[in-house]
Write a structure and sequence with these properties.
Layout: H1 9-21, E1 24-25, H2 26-36, H3 45-58, E2 61-66, E3 69-74, H4 78-90, H5 94-103, H6 109-127
Antiparallel strand pairs: 1-3, 2-3
Helix pairs in contact: 2-3
Length: 132
Amino acid sequence: MSELPAPTGRELEILKVLWEQGASSVRIVYKHMLAAQPAGKDLAYNTVQTLLRLMEDKGLVTHRVEGRAFVYEAAYSREQSASRFLDRVFDGATSELVLSLIRSERVPTDELDRLQQLINDARKQRRGDSRP
């Protein structure tokens, strides 16, 4: 797997829009980012357009032309990006990532319960077990 460039904070915001909305024009990305901005924080359409071009140069997004609009798409899925992060930072050890989050007290109790349920479901699925 080739090295995925680390996106800046703004680039990550754009990637989140593309992961959630799918392929999108600059205008759609801009509108979603504008809606997520704190009141009074400036964001220019041209800034989003320039960032998308730079992200394409870095290999983070690709584009196609539809009429007069450029439609951008993330070059990597959220899952691929998370997997690369896990490999780079934790040498692929999922338990080390989870332990790091738990130690930093970033995971609320209800989220721990949800994680436990996801683990239980994954175990059942791997065993082919459909029992509750």
